[in-house]
Amino acid sequence: MSTKPELIQTAIFNKLSAAPPLAGVIWRSRLRPIPENKASAIVMRPGTVGEPDLIVLGQYRWVLNLAIEFYGRGDVPDSITDPIIEAAFTRIAADRTLGGICDDILPGRREWDFESRDTDLVVAILELNIEFTTSEATL
């Protein structure tokens, strides 16, 4: 059995990976550089799970902070990533409970950065704040 954060991350990765592809590569986590022959990439980064709130006897409410990185390569790389971000969030927000795995998905902060060693590669980071509940006996 898996924890709720693991189930949530798997469900979001499956949405991002569904056809048609949103980017040249889509990784659950990144262990290697973005290939130079790819104009775009999506990488999920597991974030923090804050301390739970006790909402009713026997139930905890948690918030998982998940970052999704969108990479674009080209002359105007940020213009490459913007439609990918929109399409990805549209897929995720189509079912904000992920089939009942979580309670809600809220968009968080967006941040842009250029890779210091690779000037034509930009990364746009979209944070998601995902609310979910568990019983006192599970994570």
Description of the structure:
With 139 residues, this protein is of the alpha+beta class. The termini are close together. Strands 1, 2, 3, 4, 5 and 6 form a six-stranded mixed sheet that branches. The longest helix is centred in the middle third of the chain and has 17 residues, at 77-93. It has helices at 4-17, 77-93, and strands spanning 25-27, 40-45, 53-56, 59-73, 104-114, 121-135. The protein is elongated, with a radius of gyration of 16 Å.
In short:
The chain is of the alpha+beta class. The protein has two helices and six strands.
The overall average pLDDT, rounded, is 89
**Secondary structure tally: strands:** 6
Beta-strand proportion:
35-45%
- Our measurement of the CA-to-CA distance between the termini, rounded to an integer number of angstroms, reads 11 Å
Which ranges are low-confidence, i.e. pLDDT below 50, for 5 or more consecutive residues? none
Shape: elongated
Please describe the biggest sheet, giving its number of strands, its sense, and whether it closes into a barrel.
6 strands, mixed
Structural class assignment: alpha+beta
Number of helices, where a helix is a run of at least 4 consecutive DSSP H or I residues: 2
Q: Radius of gyration over alpha carbons?
A: 16 Å
> Helix-strand pattern, N to C?
HEEEEHEE
Helix content: 10-25%
